[in-house]
Amino acid sequence: MKITVLVDNNTYIDRYYLAEPAVAYFIEDGEMRLLFDTGYSDVFLRNAHTLDIDLKNMTYLVFSHGHNDHTGGLKYLTSALNCQNINLIAHPDCFAPKYDDNGNYIGAPFTEAEISDIFHFMPAREPLWLSPKLLFLGEITQSHSWEARCAIGTIEKNGAKSPDYNYDDTALVYLTDDDGIFIITGCSHSGIANIIAQAQKLTGRAKISGILGGFHLLEDNERLHDTVDYLRSLELKMLYPAHCISLAAKAAMLKYLPITEVGVGLKIEL
Fold first, then answer.
1. pLDDT tens figures, 147-184
2. Exposed, middle or buried, 122 (CB in 10 Å: 0-12/13-18/19+)?
3. What number is the average pLDDT over the span 67-76?
4. CA 203/CA 34 separation, integer angstroms
5. What range defines the domain where residue 143 resides?
């Protein structure tokens, strides 16, 4: 499997791609071509062109969750490509309207009904194998008390708004050749340790070969230190913290964990 970072908050020195505070990864494995999130704008399309990645051959579009820094690029993708043959995988809540605490819209640019007209939409609350080696985790259950869900704004369902605990937040898991698993996250609103626990349970593999993605660790607090301690216990060989992670969190990780800087154009081959 090869992963190419099309969108991240960062770029690398002397590699002139575009960045934005968002996520989009292009994943290739055999005949499978998968786009994981679409960032906030058309930046993923522009970087894909610069990187000579042809999205016309895409077989899957997978969303980590419905926030607009992960789904906003949809409106540009649908203008650029005929999407009727693309399988779109996401939690059923992904396209429900979402708002921040000030009432500003922060959800996806399309409704579920609109998405169903454009793509082959396959809503998945339960785990779903996309290939013999790649698993969509579905809704994440809480396994660690220190990773209780925190509401981020509100979600609207059936005309009523309620606190949004981001039950649509999920991840991908790849079975590596060393009998481990490699985990790909968007924001880890569900908690990275909860995601890891579910991945281990569903695959039957305890070894974590690596992790790429957002961790939603923004403050130097007890949760950060609990997370670092937990990740240390896994004896990770590869850790790529991206997108929603603060400098303080990266610094805390760097003391004990083998982190690699993430930026647009990064390629990971497994």
1. 999 999 999 999 999 999 999 999 999 999 999 999 99
2. middle
3. 98
4. 20
5. 2-269
Q: How confident is the model at residue 220, as a pLDDT?
A: 82
For position 97, which CATH number holds? 3.60.15.10
The size of the chain, in residues, is 270
Give how many domains the chain has, as a whole number.
1
Average pLDDT for the chain = 96
pLDDT in tens, 210-269: 999 999 998 888 999 999 999 999 999 999 999 999 999 999 999 999 999 999 999 999
- 236: tokens are 């990770």
Neighbours of 209 (CB within 10 A): 20
Q: Convert the pLDDT of each residue in 96-121 to its tens digit.
A: 999 999 999 999 999 999 999 999 99
